[in-house]
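Late entry, written up from scratch paper. The run itself happened at the end of the previous shift, but nothing got recorded in the book at the time, so transcribing now.
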Amino acid sequence: MRVTTLDEFGRPVAFGAVERWDSESESFVPLGSTGEDGSAAFALDPAWRTAVLDFARPPTRAEASDDSAGVALRMVANGRTPSDALWITGGIEAVALEIGAAAMRIVGDVLDVEGRPVAGARVRRIEAQRPPRRTNTGHLAVVSPCVAYSDEQGRFALVDAPPGLSWVVVEADGYGPSAAREFRVAAAPHEPEGERVSRIVLRPAAGVVGVVSTPAGAPLGGARVVWRDTESLLRREARSGEGGAFELAGLPSGRSLLLEVDSPSGRASTRLVLEPGEERDWSPTLAPSDGAAVEPSEPDGTSAPPTGAARLVVLDECGARLDGAVILGRRASDGDGAALGRHARRRTGEREVLFEELPVGRWSFVALVPGRGCFDLGDALVQAGRVSELGERFAPPAGLLELDWGWPPDEAHGERVEFQIAQIGADDTVAVIDRGRAPHGAYSVFPGDYVVEALRERVCGASTRVRVDAFGRVSASLAPAVPASAGTR
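Output as recorded:
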């Protein structure tokens, strides 16, 4: 296999360090270095091949993975985040590895509930905005893991953390998992931000066992039993066996846990608080699922119009609750009347958003997040007396909108010029991101079209439009026009 190491501008990197994934140690180990021209040939031992590991994918996502065997290669350099790991499955003679952005450092302590250090805890940084992807040469590219272990004093250091939205997840034997959210965006490409300190507390482990039964009371095999932490991306999942039995181990004790069963036969859910070391029995009997679609009956003129409900779960890029989002629902007009609209905000502590008493018909839903814009949540057919399930909906990866604001106040007339940044929807709806006299300079916003306006007494005097893509970076500049007499020829 011929490997070429490149910098962020596509130039060869001399003596670039190449590593391979070792399944026994569950870590990357040195393979060799490239030469002065940034390339080298390496012999890949078939014994290194193993099933692909989605070690960087948020566990609440469901991107397709590759089950074939392969060898993972990456490039590393001091002070920089490693390149994406390329999964080589055979038939490829050459690959290129591009080094990542400047690395950041996350240090912290892992403690138990008594404040004592926990040694040997596995600390992972999970980057949420970049799921596994296919390169133009057909390789599977996976974000390299960022892993460390706590020492005898419970201290850890993640030295190759990239910028962006992520979670730090900690796991240790005898404890339930814990997570801390990290949200950082570099001020400029490949520019470090320094050190971040985290303190993570682990709770003693507990478990849940039980038997899943159908609505008729018969044991149900193959049902998916899931624990989700409503505050983070933590998750455990198990399948019931032929007799309906299941076991969920390694759950954190002393906190409210949401357990759900999802099956074509029906659904069930509960909240539990487990004691340290407890193995709680929960044997749910599923409630019937919605079943086949039923056409709503025509109103007879004397009864109220038929209504139904819609339920969905809105999550951020990491799979955690998207707090502060306003969920908007809209039913298309039937041609004779105006379109109907509803809005809802999830109640504190609840995971789901429920729209009740919606007139039957097809509804579309969007999420509006103050300061970040809005994104589409999909459509649902609302039926009389039924709850339409939209399931989990994730926020898209953000992009960066930078604003160069050169509009000074009009001192001669005493009028104030304000800026306004707004997202323009597909149906020309407007979601205001920010408004005022002094913009922040950079905004992390959802993908879409945006307009920047200069307003004098709420009247637009100048504007510019830009398109922001996921993971993209766009600059917008707005300033008063220069008089012709002051210009240059």
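Residues 365 and 435 are 25 Å apart (CA to CA).
(Scratch paper discarded after transcription.)
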